[in-house]
Amino acid sequence: MVSFIRRRPWEIRESAATPEALFFDRRQVLAGLGGAVAAGGLIGAGAIGSSRAAFAAGGPIDDLFPPKRNEAFKLDRALTPEAANGSYNNFYEFGFDKGIADRAAKLKPFPWSVTIDGLCNKPQKLDAVELIRKMPIEERLYRHRCVEAWSMTIPWTGFPLAELVKLADPKPEAKYLRMETFLDPKIAVMQAQTWYPWPYVEGLTLAEATNDLAFIAIGAYGKPLPNQHGAPLRLSVPWKYGFKSIKSIVKFSFVKERPKSYWEGLQASEYGFWANVNPAVPHPRWSQATERVLGTPDTVPTQIYNGYGEQVAGLYKDLAGERLFM
Ligand SMILES: Nc1nc2c(c(=O)[nH]1)N[C@H]1C(S)=C(S)[C@@H](COP(=O)(O)O)O[C@H]1N2
Ligand SMILES: [Mo]
């Protein structure tokens, strides 16, 4: 059934193809935490996730589907098959392998409290459904390029992050938007491993957050978001490496200082704040020139800003001194 998403024999082993996971292992070994390796290995064992029937009808946002597609966002390639996308995920809270979909079933996306705070005139705490109902919902076809050199395409349903920023009404001192994932080791098994800098955190400049491409996904493939993609609210910033697109967000904070992301906390020399896609700037441990297209046998050239340069290159024109592509 899922054989088409299994790695083909000519492809590299899963462990070799997932440098982020390798990095975790190495760190654990370096830290002398042998038990953690065992735990990670145990839940990772043999995992090719099954694609769950994610759409249990009767949910509180069902009426928003199917959404109206915004035709301004076009793809240069086919959509990734839903089953492939739903069973090959990075969601480290649930394990360091790709087959986390079943484990993510523990997550309960409704009800879901969202906090908007920091340097804004309208700080508020509201339920995700209440927030979603204030937002203009549409479908967009987006690319996604993981830093591990694989890519996907996906029809997200959601709303522009700029609309959430507008709702919060940031003060002039606010320079960045910091976003945080839920923290609950009873739900997410890996969060019990307290030497990782949980919760997952990401950040954008306000200029990035209000760029039209920055999108909060609440659904995919015309249905509410399956847990493994980061229900109920997940960022998509498709011109940046995938780790910037933080899942299952509980908090949006307007701040003055550049937030330190989860990945920066683990390894700042390899995973920086900007993380814009650039085929000419290799990761310290592998090339970024090409990408494996999930659900196909293809490897294709990677594009600068993942092909979205027209929309976003202007954001960076005065930032030449910054490490924009890592
Ligand atoms: N909270 C959280 N968000 C996350 C991650 C994660 O481990 N935890 N992984 C990131 C990475 S590395 C990628 S490539 C994408 C994967 O999204 P997908 O599984 O929906 O394809 O989610 C990003 N968002
Ligand atoms: Mo990623």
UniProtKB/TrEMBL annotation:
Keywords assigned by UniProt, alphabetized: Oxidoreductase
Domain of life of the organism encoding this protein: Bacteria
Protein name in UniProt: Protein-methionine-sulfoxide reductase catalytic subunit MsrP
Pfam families hit by this protein: Oxidored_molyb
An MF annotation (GO) of this entry: oxidoreductase activity
InterPro entries the UniProt entry points to: OxRdtase_Mopterin-bd_dom, OxRdtase_Mopterin-bd_sf, TAT_signal
Residue ranges of every copy of the Oxidoreductase molybdopterin-binding domain listed in the record: 109-263
NCBIfam families: PRK05363.1
Species per Swiss-Prot/TrEMBL record: Methyloraptor flagellatus
EC number of the protein: 1.8.5.-
